[in-house]
Amino acid sequence: MEAIMLELNELEYLHNAAVCVDRLGKIVAVETDCNQQKAIETVYTRLGWSLDNVSVTLARAGQFFFPGFVDTHIHASQYPNVGVFGKSTLLDWLNKYTFPMEASLSSLPKAHRVYTRCIRQTLAHGTTTAAYYATIDVNATNLLADLCYSMGQRAFVGRVCMDHLGPEYYIDESPDQALAATRATIEHIRGLDSGFEIVSPILTPRFAPACSAETMRGLSELQKQTQLPMQTHISENANEIELVKELFPDSKSYANVYDTYGILNEKMILAHAVHLTEEEADLIAERKTKVAHCPVSNSALSSGVARVRWLLEKGIQVGLGTDVSGGYSPSILEAARQAKLVSNHLAMPGGRSDNLPQEERDKSKLSVDEVLYLATKGGAQVVGLADKIGAFQVGMQWDAQLVDLGAVPAEVAEDDFTIDGSVDIFGWEEWDECIAKWVFNGDSRNTKKVWVQGRLVHQQT
Amino acid sequence: MEAIMLELNELEYLHNAAVCVDRLGKIVAVETDCNQQKAIETVYTRLGWSLDNVSVTLARAGQFFFPGFVDTHIHASQYPNVGVFGKSTLLDWLNKYTFPMEASLSSLPKAHRVYTRCIRQTLAHGTTTAAYYATIDVNATNLLADLCYSMGQRAFVGRVCMDHLGPEYYIDESPDQALAATRATIEHIRGLDSGFEIVSPILTPRFAPACSAETMRGLSELQKQTQLPMQTHISENANEIELVKELFPDSKSYANVYDTYGILNEKMILAHAVHLTEEEADLIAERKTKVAHCPVSNSALSSGVARVRWLLEKGIQVGLGTDVSGGYSPSILEAARQAKLVSNHLAMPGGRSDNLPQEERDKSKLSVDEVLYLATKGGAQVVGLADKIGAFQVGMQWDAQLVDLGAVPAEVAEDDFTIDGSVDIFGWEEWDECIAKWVFNGDSRNTKKVWVQGRLVHQQT
């Protein structure tokens, strides 16, 4: 096989390697410089495997295995609205498009349709793990968990807590009700997947303006009891930040609001983090809190550009989020592409860092390797699964995608060559150039098969 | 049929309309509020058509006809490098990736392979007209023209003039040689398509730093003799602008250099125009010179963000360019999407216009309708074909694409629904929301058929 691994600054290519996965989906051997015959003769023997019980998937010419993508921030309940936002920005977009759609999913047949398609599209785009926001509705949230489990996508499923400032037709009645409803979804998921192996609950205060102090305090308590992860939004949009200042006049900052209520900790995923101050970023780093970078959404809603290099240099762990449907795409590959492009925007003349010398500005730019790292290992860190997913190492899970850039038709007359996707490989490219072509022009056509914990959860028909 | 037309601020939908195209590819009737039976009974009779000689293409549910895209700036010779630029910006990118690739296409078998794939991919993405840069090589440039003609893509094909500052291995020897070589390709194309109906030559000084004064003057003369269009680059990158200042110390500005040599006129297409001064933009408007906006390239090479609204308000006609391979994508739909996103960047806090009030900044944002206008009618204006292409009106050419967003599986159980592309239509969307979904998540899978001048030049297999 050809497998590709990565560190923040460098892709590691495992050419001619065998990765052996057991029945439970765990990687039990990684043998480099290996072909099928050698694997059978040496690795199978060592593992005590017999040929009859092993199923083999080979990467053909032009194909390679890549760790599954981790989407650290996605609203499954907004999936039907992808691409639909007109000229709105965050706060009017919430009221015009988002709340009505979310509220409508209390209809379970509609929720079934929306969530099925969302999971199917994200799997088709290579997302093996997703941190989902559902809605405030318990039954529909439980349904999302059921569907993730049955379709085999590793998922964190969060019932949205919002008992403040929401529209009348879509709001939790009280802190007590919000917490009880949240506990109900936790118990449902425990019944489905007792060890939270594939599907886990995640505590989900929508964002500070939508949560009463009591609800945030209650969620902090619940987290102490359950040790569950938590997710929310921070510092996405200028008007939102103003609103937080008005609502929490005693807090030093937006990050400080969450800190005050005890939920700024290493189990918290903060989406966006576009306009953090130096002090906020330092606090987030100190608390070991994670960041979901959502460049597609931040550009689509004109929110701004998060300074990923700056966050990373502070030691903050960062992953990528599609932020469907603030983001228009269910694809983490698209999020990676846009992460690269918006990081370039930070370096441009006329941009945010215009007062810095060009050399300093250029440091903002993320490389192809770096954005792929954020899409996989970075994401695994953010969702607390860095020991299980995001790479191909013994003891980790086989959460992977088979990527196909197209066989190079060296022997095929150009006139007989048919188009299968937007990536065009000519045959003279280096591996890193092939990867760059995938990042910039790839789409779900290139993702032929997807596995989660060893289970084949998507293949192209 | 469902056909979609557009003005700068508004899409026009022709529901239940018949568009009749004659054998020469010309639209001879557009009948709204019409079905097939009515078309046969009234329009065919009026046109004197008999049923036996008419071929009918219907848009099924979920499909619509859209004007073919116009790519106002694309380097066919750089196509194999799409997505490959590492961390480079314009000037080092030229030396590291671009010049070696272009030079290598003096090998005609290689040029045949590269140009065939480029034309095939751009057709598959709905590009019915392209303004191409080839290379300095006469034979390879002629080959590109031959291939466009035989594959049926409307094209402007430019032999690149560069007799200054280029690398030793890739440079015109002298102004005389540059002009003679250009004349040779013009004569070749005249032999191929005497009226320049499908393929036309276009005069192509690479950019001011790469052209001697004598060459620019010579091209100006040649343009006066031939009335051919011309294309070049302007004000893409800060270092490039500095270089122009050094090379032309007597010129008031970059735009002024072209003006001095008589080539800033209504037949000139200027690519990029990212960092124009107020004075330059006014001069360009006065000369009725056109602009090819290339947002994908400008973000990928960290060049900057062109202020399209500002250009339009000065009365400058603007189209979109992929700028392959400074741009990573052969798709004008991707260029439209990025045109929308980069226009949002102009409105962001921390961006170029940070000193303006938010309301002023928000004016920079382009709508979905507006970027689709740039992709079609705007492009048609830029290449001087506004009377022939870019819309469905009697007397214009049938340059069109059949777009399919997927039949809405209202009656299909969600579990049996298969994925065909990244656009997901649920059935409750308004037309403008379907179009937005196409712009944000569409790709070549949605472009089922493509026609140029009535000839079917692409269909999905």
Automatic annotation (TrEMBL), chains A, B:
Recall the GO molecular function terms of this protein's record.
Answer: guanine deaminase activity; zinc ion binding
Q: Which reaction does it catalyse?
A: guanine + H2O + H(+) = xanthine + NH4(+)
Q: Where is the Amidohydrolase-related domain?
A: 66-457
Does the record bear Cytoplasm in its keywords? no
Cellular component GO terms, alphabetical: cytosol
EC number annotated for this UniProt entry: 3.5.4.3
Any GO BP: guanine catabolic process
Q: Which keywords annotate this record?
A: Hydrolase, Metal-binding, Zinc
Cofactor(s) demanded: Zn(2+)
| Enzyme class name | hydrolase
Bound cofactor: record note: Binds 1 zinc ion per subunit.
InterPro entries the UniProt entry points to: Amidohydro-rel, Guanine_deaminase, Metal-dep_hydrolase_composite, Metal_Hydrolase, Metallo-dep_hydrolases
> Which pathway is recorded for this entry?
Purine metabolism; guanine degradation; xanthine from guanine: step 1/1
Q: Name one Pfam family in it.
A: Amidohydro_1
Cite the PANTHER family for this sequence: GUANINE DEAMINASE
Protein family according to the UniProt entry:
Belongs to the metallo-dependent hydrolases superfamily. ATZ/TRZ family.
What functional role does this protein have? Catalyzes the hydrolytic deamination of guanine, producing xanthine and ammonia.
Q: What is this protein called?
A: Guanine deaminase
Which organism does this record belong to?
A: Xylaria multiplex
The organism's taxonomy opens as:
Eukaryota, Fungi, Dikarya, Ascomycota, Pezizomycotina
